[in-house]
Amino acid sequence: MANKPIKMVLAGAGFIGREHLKSAKGLELVEYVGIADPCEVAAKEASVQYNLPCFSDLSEAIASLKPDAVDVCVPTPYHLAQVEICAEHGVNVLCEKPMEITLDAARRMAQIAEDSGIRLMIAQVMRFWPEYRYVREASEDGRYGKIVSVDCKRLSSPPGWNSWLMDETKSGGAAIDLQIHDMDFVLQLLGTPRSLTAWGRDQTGGVNALVTKLDYDNGIPVFLETSFLMPASYPFRMFFKVEFEEATFEMDFWRPKGQRLKIYPVDGDVKEVCVTDDAYCDEIDYFAKQLAAGKPFDAVPLDESIRALELCCASVESCRVHKPVIL
To answer: Any idea which architecture 6-123 has in CATH?
Structure first.
């Protein structure tokens, strides 16, 4: 496997699945060989666009194409079932985030992978997003001292391209599907908090707008703001402000690409950091390289994907019981 491309089948030809196909073009170690999607229209459109055979059934696609891995990009409640199919065929899995809707299902996925011997990685794309990765590296090497506060925002109007995203029975709503990006980011920076408190709007199918406060023993203030309920005229925004002892990092998606990350040092002038990597490309490339080399997915440990989901579920609980949740 090490000297030839990793053959992959895409399961799910919707928005994110097509983003994966587009981003993976040109990768030497990745070859998408087919598409599986029960939605005939979506499957055929992607099939024509990328000149790939399409199937309505994943088992049939695996049996026919004999891939090394499946890229699971179906709606979240079907992740577990897709992993079960892959395990039955001994095929490795790159699975979109969130891992699943419930903690039980996520833990079951991990157990299936372990029992069957297949490799499973969750596509937590912010771990590869250049501005987020830059801050994580600065935190790890301590170049600006310790972190003293974190503020993250991820704000969207209702996602008309996929209305199921607002239904908590299908996606977990914004509290899970959207917030998990920033929850995972904070976990990388600071680890697991001792508790959290969340305030939200239970509207249009679930908790689709909320503010979550994470409580750490050292008292660092950490706030996450997440919404699928912004006006239609409001452009998508992801933002973070991470304060270190010696500098403040600020990223704003509203700025032009390559100019989104700025560093404001305690001493000296503002620094603009130009990073323009394709995060989807990088995560797929990482998956393929680690799989080919027989190395673990250390950049995206399964237990941390489960923990991020656990914290998002706790934020939903906190919104509904109107009190902190001890972790």
So the answer is: 3-Layer(aba) Sandwich (3.40)
Extract the tokens encoding 74. Answer: 């179906």
Render pLDDT for 53-99 as a digit per residue (tens, 0 to 9).
999 999 999 999 999 999 999 999 999 999 999 999 999 999 999 99
Closest by CA position to 215, among listed 249, 232, 192: 192
Q: Whose CA is closest to 16, among 79, 106, 96? A: 96
- Yes or no: say if 186 and 222 are a contact pair by the CB < 8 Å rule: yes
Q: What are phi and psi of 114, to 5 degrees?
A: -65, -45
What letter represents residue 292's amino acid? A
CB 281 within 8 A of CB 25: no
Residue type present at position 42 = A
Residue in the structure block whose two tokens are 């996929």: 162
CA dist 225 and 239 (Å) reads 10
Give the CA diameter of the chain. Answer: 61
Q: Are 197 and 321 contacting, i.e. CB atoms less than 8 angstroms apart?
A: no
Is 210:315 a contact under the CB 8 Å cutoff?
Answer: yes
CATH number of 127-277+309-326: 3.30.360.10
Contact 242, 147 (CB under 8 A): yes
Domain-wise residue ranges, the chain: 6-123, 127-277+309-326
- Tell me the per-residue pLDDT of 165-189, one tens digit each, with 9 for 90 and over: 898 988 999 999 999 999 999 999 9
